[in-house]
Here is the input.
Amino acid sequence: MVEIYASWSPGLVDDSAALKILKDSKIIAGIETCDVDNTLNKIEKAGLKYNLHNALFKQKIGLDNPNFINALIQKPNILAACKNSYPPVLSFHAGHEALWNKYITKEEILSNTVRNIKMLDQTISKKIIFETPNYYEKLFTGVDSVANKNTLFYVTSPEFFRQVLAKTNAGYLFDINHNLVSGAEKIRLKEFRGEIQDYFAEILLAVAKETYQIHLNVPNGNPIDGYLDIHGPLKLAQKNSKLVLMLAKEIIDSCPNIKVITMEETSGLAPKLHAKLMVKQAQLIQKHLL
Here is the structure.
């Protein structure tokens, strides 16, 4: 059974009426969050589950960071929350070091990621899954950029996904928006030959059997100028939403082990309005994807 999780939003866990909207919907299992402090107990008290995602986000530390395990051990409350997160999978970022370290190599990212996943396997009795970043030109051009283009290209490619999966017992978190942004940019820059459906088909060849979670949201932009990862909501009449739904349906039909779908959306709405949006989005997912 696939569980649907709402995205965290400012003030959401402090608004009992908003939490009740999620609980009473009967289709939203809980809330996905990276925040541990003063958050998780409020979610549970409302009768909802929590799904802890990328627990060291505030420290900008993911699986590819050499200090990942030490940082986690130094935060016993975060480690405990990881162990107690409700889904059978636990997700972290991998490859994001390429966004802010122009000196890191592909070999270092792969080695760090594999080592840290194996260490987690000895500590946490959940399937560890990894999510990869966006790839677009603005991240590695300009005076202020420190992104490593070659490494960022690698960590957003099926080659990296396949290597991590082959060397560990990990699974994959398929962030549709990240892969759409990355694939469209590689096509736009003539670094991939084919359409976006071809790009996703290559990814599915690498991860279909090992995909355990989906992040679902809609980007801004277009294939000519490039997309921007804004964590937008699904709107059936919108062209980008139609594309995301088509790709999501293909992923769900191709991946037999999906346990969680998270509506990873940044609404900017007040808590009760955000909760109502999450319910409507979950209803769309049930109707069009499940």
